[in-house]
Amino acid sequence: MTLIAPDPTTHRHPAWADTPRDAGGWIARAREVAAVLADDALARDRAGAPPAAEVALLKESGLVTLLGPAAHGGGGQTWETAYRVIREIARGDGSIGQLLGYHYLWAWAVRLVGTDAQIAAVEQLYTEGRLLFGGAVNPRDADLVVTEDGDELVFSGRKSFSTGGVVSDLTVLEGVLQGTDTHIFAIVPTDQEGIVFARDWDNLGQRLTESGSVEIRDVRVDWSGAAGFVDRVFQPLVYNTLNVPAIQLVFANFYLGIAQGALDQAAGYTREHSRAWPYGGDDKERAVDEWYVLEGYGQIQSKLWADEALVDAAGAEISAALHAPREELTPERRGRIAARIAAAKLRIAEDGLEAATKVFELTGARATANAVGLDIHWRNLRTHTLHDPIPYKKREVGQYALLGKDPEPTWYT
């Protein structure tokens, strides 16, 4: 089956007339979507077109509303389920798994820092409209400035990364109030003259994430839209700092999905096309009977199963915190969660890259043909695992284990 944009006159794919009722149903829905994506993932990766049809598929399936309130037609699910869904989608297409994961984080941003009124308004808006979020929030670019103009805030500047922006409906902006060190988040419609995408994302992997740069030209937001501000003063909570552990575990889950996808494709190729080596002295008729092939797949699968267990345990822990009353989160609990997530991310980053390389040894020389496209998994993992240095994750876990020191909340921990 080839991915085709849904009929614009309908809001739902005919096969998805109903909303899944529980976590298992949503994960099954994600597998159905992933199967559609996997069918032509390589061709779409090479074409490099904006993933409009892919986003339409996420909307038609209802996956964009997974975390949205059931009262507004959303799934009303937990982050524990969201992480599993991200992984399943990435198993079919790593780029779209990333897009969906970032969407979930930015859709939750209003809960992380917003007021009760802001939460209610934003969640109703995006859930009822099945809207997709993008974000212009790259923290290493400190060049988005916010100025005051009466009762309005004016965002201006540039961000070198804006994942999903080109195909998004809503954009999360983040900038620093001029003359202060106060960061302000706001959610605005993407389709406006003041948001200009350079469409310059042309990277080795994750090619369909539309992660290129964006210019923000005098985008105006009412002060009431400044997330978490009451009478122009921000109301801080430890809970606000869960944004980074939450997104880091998004990374770990789509890394795991990509690695699982590499294993799936390689195993299929070995079963159907690989030939046994006839000069080893222990000749086999089929590649699937070669001892080193069996050993190799056993090693990859064992590591990915172990990674999955660690990722799922971290997901259960942060999900419980994300869905608990915001005032309850302590710095100690936040630190433990961040350390566990750092460990999960570093493990799947290293094991995933190993798997995406090892599969070539297990499939054989003919599997390097461009028509096979086994390289897409390594390219995707290699690209995004450079997001922030893995050695720092090792240090965070080491400090936690050896010194009992919690990871300090920063833009990357």
TrEMBL record:
Gene3D superfamilies: Acyl-CoA dehydrogenase/oxidase, N-terminal domain, Butyryl-CoA Dehydrogenase, subunit A, domain 2, Butyryl-CoA Dehydrogenase, subunit A, domain 3. The keyword Oxidoreductase applies. Pfam families: Acyl-CoA_dh_2 (PF08028), Acyl-CoA_dh_N (PF02771). Residues 249-387 form the Acyl-CoA dehydrogenase C-terminal domain. Residues 33-119 form the Acyl-CoA dehydrogenase/oxidase N-terminal domain. Keywords: Oxidoreductase. This is Acyl-CoA dehydrogenase family protein. The lineage of its organism: Bacteria, Bacillati, Actinomycetota, Actinomycetes, Micrococcales.
